[in-house]
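hey m, so remember when u said the tokens were messed up on ur end? i reran from scratch. heres the input so u can diff it against urs
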Amino acid sequence: MRESWRRLMLDELLARAARQAPETIAFRCGAVARSYAAAEDRVRRLANALHDRGVRRGDRVAVMMQNSIETVEAYLGVVRAGAICVPVNFRFVAAEVAQLVADAEPAFVICDEATRDMARGGGDDRLIVATDQVGAGVRLEDIIASAPADPIELERDESDIAFMMYTSGTTGRPKGALLSHLNLIANTMNMFAALEIGASDRNWLAGLPLFHIAGLSGLLPFLYVGGTSTILSSTAFDAAAVADVMERDRITSCYFVPTQWQMICALPGVRERSFGLERVTWGASIAPRAVLDAIAETFPGARMYNVFGQTEMSPITCVLRADLYPDTHGSIGKAVPGVEMRLVDDGMNDVAPGQVGEIVYRGPNTFAGYWKLPEATADAFAGGWFHSGDLVQADPDGFLHVVDRKKDMIISGGENIYCPELEATIVSHPAVQEVAVIGMPHPKWVETPWAIVVLKPGEAAEAGDIVDWCRARLASYKKPSRVVFVEKLPRNASGKIVKPEIRRRYVEDQSPNG
């Protein structure tokens, strides 16, 4: 029997809206629209189908699908069944999928026509549930249609893990961050407060990949209020098509990275169009002043927010209302309600005002730990707070500014690229002796990875060989945009490669000879 005091579970956001506004459109994608009642019926059926096939509380079910209504239904159906949903990046290559599947050990892998071959390369074909027929697998629509629509009654708790979101590993191995129902509901409440979501703001444009924590979490406030989410397909970003959707569907809120906002605002005639946008949101990197000015001119009256966070925090930790504080350009704002933060030194001592420290967090949206990685979890929570890896400084008014990252990471076009993962791939090339990957400025993507490579004595390779090697083993966005061959890498007295020196050299000379 359910306890009446039990707090809201993540999938119950859909059920709640279906009770209150059954005929309201919950999701649009292309020419397809689904009401709350219809979506709730399909989620119930999928949960029953998974349960009838042996899926139990705490089991993992991987979902590798491009953006679609069915993707959201799969996510909610998995957690409704008491299982842990494991979104898989549909840009992965077979080796990455196989590594993730081996680690997560899912009971099933749900995929679509575009991802089925990649999903099949990750494991047992009999565990595949697809939108079309796949070998020994079963069709998603068949099991939904044949399953009962009765509510599934299970023992569940808000502390149960709802999602396992893989982050690129700082050591080359991806880590599964465990997010509970409470974590994601708490983040949703934080978003209401920090982003000032009101009764009139009910049309969300889901433009990010849904396997991203930002893509997933962006939907939740609009499920909570019974709004409509328009889901963009997973094709290459088309600014003109996005603007058409924003105008047609009277979108009130959406999130894009600064590069995408720049492309939208540069469209011919865009400032003469009729939009209903109330909120402009961006993240992943600081928006240049020129982009902010273009947004303000294109969408006059819209509130402008820079959001900051990371997967382990479900994800939002800090928000800046950029249109209210124009003099704080470059800041990530302040901590959102519900998140406690400190700036600390290596000994967990608070740093003095104006000094640089690592930002650490705690709060109900803080993840439960890393899947099967107890040492990494213990390190992440050293001193009782979650260590972000971001080095931050507070200005006299308390606005936070990111100075550097402890983690060796590049953010390119909104995608996290962890240098050790890319380095491990490059050094596995038979001609490579060692490599250092650095982030370099890029006019469109903000940052881009360069690989500084030392070849083994007597070996030869071209830049294209290294790029092709990476493309075959990693998602395409992770490959280096430039490969530079050098005779040796600079090292300090302890033998460690000095990346700041490498970066400094190539920032000063954008046309290196090597």
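this time it looks ok to me. DSSP finds 15 helices and 26 strands in the chain. if urs says something different then somethings off w ur setup not the seq
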